[in-house]
Every structure is written in C-alpha cells, then in structure tokens.
C-alpha cells in the first residue's frame, strides 16, 4: 500500500455539531487554540512530581479507586495511541488516521461508549489486496459500537458524530458488538480505552474478559511513563455477536 500524498483534515472536537452532551474524543485531533492579538497568556506548565526517584508528568490525571474518567483522561490515552499506531515504521499495524477512526462518545454525562470503523475480522484482509491509497479511500466503511454495558439504547449518542460525517444521510447503519460486560458502573471509560488499544492493533476485543482490579493501576502507569502496559485480560471462547442498528 502506497503512502498518502495528502491527508484530509481529521474530525476535531471543535468541528462537531453542538449538542447537549459532551463531544466525543477522537483518536486524532489537530485542534488549534485561537491566539489573542492583544496579549499572550502565560504558558501553563504540566505538573512534575517524583516517586521512587522517577520523575513523571500529568499527575493531575491519576485515578483514585472509584473516580470516573474525564475527557482529559480519554484524550491523553488516545493521543498516546495516536503516536504509537500511526507511525509507519512501528512494528505494529500501520493505522492511517484518514481511514481508521475511533471515537469515544459521552452518553448523557453518565457513560462512555466507543464508535469505530475498524473491523478486525474483515477489513485487514481487504486492505491487503488494495494497491493504492486512493483506492482504499473509496471503500465504504462499516461502523461498530462497543459498549461495556451492551446496552443498545446508548447507541443514540453516536448519531451526532455520524451525522457530521455523513450529512446527506437521513439514517445511519451501525452494528453493536457484544462484549463481556463490566462488573460495575465506574470503569466504562477504562473499557473504552482498552477497546481502542486492542482495535488499534486490529484485534477483536469482543471475547476478552478484562481484569478490572488492575485497570486503574495500568492507566496510572500510562500517566507515569507515557506508555500503556496492556490491560490484563483472559480470552473467552465465544462467538462474535453483532447486532445491526439503524439510527
């Protein structure tokens, strides 16, 4: 597959339509803050702390035992994945941000789900037969929802994103992938990060049972070292169940 000669502008939080809920986080953003022509505010420096002779930044993002993830937590994780998985010389599968998309969507400020057009079971096989970037960009991509509660009613929250991407369409076809659900209601943000990591490697998270007891420590290690040590999980023997939805 040849490398792209140009890239389309990726979706950013600023470009999303205004809704009553928080905008989704995207795995690729190039948002720029406007500059004040009269004065330049002082640059805010990230917090730097030490622990066991190790210096680390962004300690304000450390998670407590029952703390919910905020948009800042999600954005930090996705920015790390963006750097890891969009470099063509990395040992992992090359993820092109103009083709593969991952969004973390806020559902009424009470839950987070993941929306993506990455299909690890099909699309990688199709891509191997494509000769050019231009040919790849014409492929009709399917969209999938991963919800750690497996609640199809939450799918409505993805409609503003799909409407932005396809303004000419009245209805949108998506599929909800059944996953092994979380145990409580505090870790939905961590599950979306876990799904994003696995999907970025073109693996299927639907049959993974995550060890929730260690997920917060893994995320805090990401804050410390700017590197995600993969969430602990065990594979469960189950078929991949996908439920088609129309929004």
From TrEMBL:
Location of the region described as Disordered in the Swiss-Prot/TrEMBL record: 1-48
Highest taxon in the source lineage: Eukaryota
SUPFAM superfamilies in the record: Cysteine proteinases
Ranges annotated as biased composition (Polar residues): 1-24
Protein name: Ubiquitin-like protease family profile domain-containing protein
Organism the protein comes from: Brachionus calyciflorus
Lineage of the species this protein comes from: Eukaryota, Metazoa, Spiralia, Gnathifera, Rotifera
